[in-house]
Amino acid sequence: MHEAFEIMLRPLVACLVLPGILVYYGLHIVRRGVIFVDLALAQVATLGTCVCLVLGHEPDDPHNYFWSLGFTLAGAIIFTFTRQGRGGRVPQEAIIGIVYVVAAAAGILLLSHSPHGKEELQKTLVGDLLTVSWMEIWRTAVLFLLIGIVHFIFRRRFIALSFGTDQSFGTLWAQRWWDFLFYALFGLVVTSFVQVGGVLLVFSYLIVPAVCGNYLAATLAGGMAVGWTVATAASVGGLYASYQLDLPTGAAIVCALGVAMVLGVILSRFRRPLGASQ
Which of 75, 84, 116, 195 has the most CB atoms less than 10 A away? Predict the structure, then answer.
């Protein structure tokens, strides 16, 4: 029992502390209708890592993070200036999909001749929570806290950006600036969490709790409460199943989140959303 506690403590803390801001961002992303933007940004971050590896750096070299972050900020600029609002001729989801597949293909090409290319690509996809260190957890937690503070200070702007109207910003360039700040901070979150949990876990924590929140709550605060509850329950359940059944940790949590979403959909059929008017 003591051995199990030592093995699973760091992954448990990471899964309880770090996904909170992803739930909040997920509600924004679902509302914007750009569901796969985190996959695209995560893949762009992975492409930065691939470039760094090709240049001769080791997988655990700090340079990897900064290369990933630089590529992610470039992706943030692309998504900022391709947002057309309702009625645009090209849906932003199309641009997001193109960025994702091109970044994925470029990463495969870059690592095709690397002796450890397959292992590195797999790690970025599913992560390895069992090897996460306390330093990684707390460093990422502090970063997420600072990003959360920025969102709290400018909450009216960010909420208006996703839940309001474009007219809330006066000029197009003002909207572009706040849009870029939103995506840049989101890129920081995605880049940091990919280093810990991989692409699939980032997407699952971002979208599944937010979808459950939208099914079961009618307000942003209610959605966050539901989302955080779902993320916490799925994290504990997934980690428990992973240890008991000797399963890959990240994949177990993703499947637990999938089960939670099914239960949330069923529950939504029998109760009124939290905060809904009578």
Answer: 75
Contact indicator for 107, 43 with CB cutoff of 8 Å: yes
Residue 194, C-beta contacts closer than 8 angstroms, at least 6 positions apart: 42, 45, 46, 68, 124, 127, 202
Tokens 């509850």 -> residue: 229
d(CA 237, CA 175): 41
Token couple for 236: 């504990």
Cα distances from 161 to residues 24, 100, 207, 248, in angstroms, run 14, 24, 19, 38
Predicted TM-score (pTM) of the model is 0.83
Residue pLDDT, tens place only, 89-148: 777 788 888 998 998 888 888 877 776 666 666 666 666 787 888 888 898 899 999 999
**Domains delineated in the chain:** 2-268 (1.10.3470.10)
Identify whether the C-beta of residue 20 lies closer than 8 Å to the C-beta of residue 228: yes
